Amino acid sequence: MSDGPWLVVGLGNPGTQYAGNRHNVGHMVLDELAHRCSASFGSSGGLLGRRPQAVTADVRLGVLPGGVPGPRVILAKPTTYMNTSGGPVAALARYYDVPPERVVMVHDELDIPYADVRLKRGGGEGGHNGLRDTTKALGTKDYIRVRVGVGRPPGRMDAADFVLRDFSSVERKDLAWLVDAAADAVELVVTSGLEAAQLRFHTKP
């Protein structure tokens, strides 16, 4: 594992009207990670130009063997809309000198069941506009994705409409558990590596 910092990005849309949407589960996971570190997010305007494009928190995430604090991690939530997430991600990666292999994107995923968490490096974006813009801005697909399952839209509902709706009352019963599990997955990636995290979260008990 490299000694350099990690960049962990939670995807979502800005504004209170989107806060509870399925599309914003990445923001929810980042809030949980910041809470675990007793950290708060601050504007990155000074880092990324005149206008803030993200809010960030600089933390030590997780605990290594022997009780040593985990690696340095920049937690980031872009304040742009989902389809223009790539610019802030690439700017933060350049500023903190984080290579793509230590960039972790936390995002909603339609192609896995609700409340499942899956991880991968590279691959396609599956129609996810935030990932597509990130790939374009970074110039590579070779970054880690923590995929948070939000399920498939019912019937003939359009996928874009589905992800821009809040979780249902039934789903909200398990939402805190899902956010906690996704945060655990991020911690395991940065402390133990992607393969260890995949082994834990891809293996059914």
In short:
By secondary structure, the chain is α/β, with parallel strands linked by helices. It is 34% helix and 21% strand.
Describe this structure in words.
Its main location: cytoplasm. InterPro entries: Pept_tRNA_hydro (IPR001328), Pept_tRNA_hydro_CS (IPR018171), Pept_tRNA_hydro_sf (IPR036416). Monomer. Belongs to the PTH family. Pfam families: Pept_tRNA_hydro. The chain is of the alpha/beta class and 205 residues long. The chain has one domain (6-201): Rossmann fold (3-Layer(aba) Sandwich), CATH 3.40.50.1470. The protein is 34% helix and 21% strand. It has six helices and nine strands. It has helices at residues 25-36, 86-95, 129-138, 159-163, 169-192, 194-201; strands spanning 6-10, 42-43, 54-60, 63-64, 68-69, 72-78, 103-109, 117-121, 144-149. The protein has a seven-stranded mixed beta sheet with strand order 2-3-6-1-7-9-8, sandwiched between helices. A two-stranded antiparallel sheet has the order 4-5. A hairpin with a 3-residue loop joins β4 and β5 (68-69). The longest helix has 24 residues, at 169-192. The mean pLDDT is 93.
Question: How are strands sequenced across the largest beta sheet?
Answer: 2-3-6-1-7-9-8
Helix content: 25-40%
CATH architecture assignment name: 3-Layer(aba) Sandwich
Ends apart, CA distance between termini: 28 Å
